[in-house]
Fold this protein.
Amino acid sequence: METFRVEVVVAKDGTLTIERVPFPAGDKVEVIVRGQDRSSDRNDRYPLRGKPFRYVEPFKPVAESDWSTLK
């Protein structure tokens, strides 16, 4: 079973038009329509992307007490 995914916008009259599907004429296909969650924007996946950052003591050891060989 081949999967074809496309995003389209619903027209004012409530119709959808899907063009250039990769299936030959006469093939039976299953159509599932799912709405996208408007609150989950792709930018929400990386909330810190593009934010300024600053290193505080960048050469200070981190979790030094976790290493048993240093005890």
Notes: The chain has a mean pLDDT of 84. Residues 13 and 67 are 66 Å apart (CA to CA). DSSP finds no helices and no strands in the chain.
